[in-house]
Design a protein that fits this description.
- It is a single chain.
- The protein is mainly alpha-helical.
- It has one domain.
- It is about 75% helix and about 0% strand.
- It has 11 helices and 2 strands; from the N terminus they run H-H-H-H-H-H-H-H-E-E-H-H-H.
- The protein has helices at about 20-40, 45-80, 80-105, 110-125, 130-150, 155-170, 175-180, 185-215, 230-250, 255-285, 300-320, and strands at about 215-220, 225.
- A two-stranded antiparallel sheet has the order 1-2.
- It is globular and about 55 Å long.
- The N and C termini lie far apart (about 120 Å).
Length: about 325
């Protein structure tokens, strides 16, 4: 029988294994790298949240833009009257959003007169008698004058905005109807598509080029997200569309005229975009409305089209194409 060890209350110390210093540093670095990878791979990391948010925003913007484009295409190739109908609806909504914004700045325009004129301009564009649009303009100014005289509370700024709103949102939009009316066949629909499509392509290329390569601000006090690089990308996209129109050979459009249309519409469409951005900044809103997810209001989506479409119609008309 072996003897038991005396109970002393203290256990003998076990000798610790010595780990080389180099191995310790290697283990520590490996742990740091694993922690960094875990932080990057976790779905709740700021980088992951940013990527997911950008993807969701792009998907929402693309989906609503696709629906908008499909509806427009269906109306363009359905004929002149469907084109007039969709432009009338869009002009009315844009005018309504414009009135909403100016009321936020304390102005009190006459919505009834302005919205009625917004409907009348595109309808007058398909009337069989010449001068219908000029007649609508004259009637609008006369009605504004009568309202100003009969309403003591109104001021001249309210009258000016009442007349300006439908001219800006509807009279300019009616140029799309005039382009479509120039040829009721599918060829006219294709020309109208090119007129609208070049603005869409310009906006899209400006957005992607500006997002990827934008370094220099175009108008930081009006629209901080716009860049000079995006502007040139949009301009190239717009010109490319009209060079394609020339290559199709369906219209009497020379290459210099095609380049001129693309360059002028590309520049003026940016002016139209900045014009509406200046209005929004003046009243302190980010979007003119919320009818189009990812884009804001319809006026936000159409601001470039209003000025760009007008310039395209004028050049096509003066150039003898329509």
């Amino acid at each position: 029988m072996s003897e038991d060890r005396p109970m002393s209350g203290k256990e003998p110390k076990v000798a610790e294994k010595r780990i080389p210093a180099g191995l310790k540093r290697g283990m520590a670095n490996l742990g740091t790298k694993n922690d960094s990878k875990a932080e990057r791979s976790t779905p709740e990391s700021p980088r992951g949240q940013g990527a997911r948010g950008w993807t969701e925003k792009l998907l929402t913007r693309t989906t609503s833009g696709a629906v908008y484009t499909i509806v427009i295409l269906a109306c363009l190739f359905a004929g002149v009257m469907p084109t007039c109908a969709i432009v009338t609806a869009m002009a009315w909504l844009c005018c309504s959003e414009f009135f909403r914004m100016v009321r936020m700045s304390g102005r009190m325009p006459n919505d009834i007169l302005g919205l009625a004129a917004a409907i009348a301009f595109p309808v007058a564009a398909v009337m069989p008698f010449a001068g219908a649009m000029r007649l609508v303009l004259v009637l609008l100014l006369i009605c504004c004058a009568i309202w100003y005289v009969a309403t003591p509370r109104s001021n001249i700024a309210d009258v000016a905005l009442t007349a300006f709103a439908p001219i800006y949102t509807s009279l300019l939009f009616s140029c799309i109807v005039l382009i479509r009316r120039s040829d009721p066949t599918w060829i006219g629909g294709l020309l109208t598509l090119a007129s609208m499509g070049c603005i869409w392509v310009s906006d899209a290329t400006a957005y992607f080029v500006g997002t990827k390569f934008g370094r220099h601000k175009l108008a930081p006090k009006i629209s901080p997200n716009k860049s000079v690089e995006g502007f040139w990308g949009g301009l190239v996209g717009c010109v490319a569309v009209w060079v394609l129109v020339w290559a199709l050979g369906l219209w009497n459009i020379s290459l210099p005229l095609a380049v001129l249309i693309g360059a002028c519409s590309g520049v003026i469409s940016v002016v139209g975009d900045l014009f509406e951005s200046r209005i929004k900044r003046g009243v302190g809103v980010k979007d003119s409305g919320d009818i189009m997810p990812g884009h804001g209001g319809l006026l936000d989506r159409s601001d470039s089209m209003l000025f760009g479409g007008m310039v395209i119609y004028v050049i096509l008309h003066l150039g003898g194409v329509i």
